[in-house]
Amino acid sequence: MADNAQQTRDATLRVLERYWNAEDDDTSMFAPDVVYRMMATGEEHRGPDGIRQLLHDFYRRSFDAIAETRNIVVGDGIAVLEAEVVGTHIGEFAGVPATGKNVRIPLVVVYEVSGDLIHAGRVYVEISVFHQQVGAS
Fold this sequence. Notes:
31% of the residues lie in helices and 42% in strands. By secondary structure, the protein is an alpha+beta fold. β3 and β4 form a beta hairpin. The longest helix is centred in the N-terminal third of the chain and has 19 residues, at 2-20.
């Protein structure tokens, strides 16, 4: 039983490592019905193309940024990434027009993985920290 659980954790980690190291337009690791939910707003993004657009808009339109990994916890078909979004605020985000300010925003994503594909992501972005860093009230 323990070997099977370890194999599932290893498979989950392989899928996510492929995702984290992929080119921006690579959607091969997403299930056709994948859903990412922005937990602060309830906004949902669906399908591989919807997720690709979400990530592009976030990391290339709202910010010129990367996610710096702090911790990764992997379980049986689930993984948690703790990171910080590090970069420059270059476009509208959370109702705030571009400020050109450098940001370091806490980020947590909970991934659900099955059959070598990501099926869901719950994204927690600390919007209040972002507001504080760019001087928005």
